[in-house]
Amino acid sequence: ARHAALDGDPEQAHHYFLRAVNANPNSPVVHSQLGMFYSGQGSHEAAAAHFFLAGLLWDDNDVYQKQLSSTLQQLGHRRAALRCLMRAAELNPADETLPVRIEQLQASLPAGDAVGPESGLSVTRHDSGFPSTVGQTTARLDGSVVLDGVWTEWHASGSLKAVACDR
Question: Cα–Cα distance between 113 and 110 in angstroms, integer?
Answer without folding.
Answer: 6
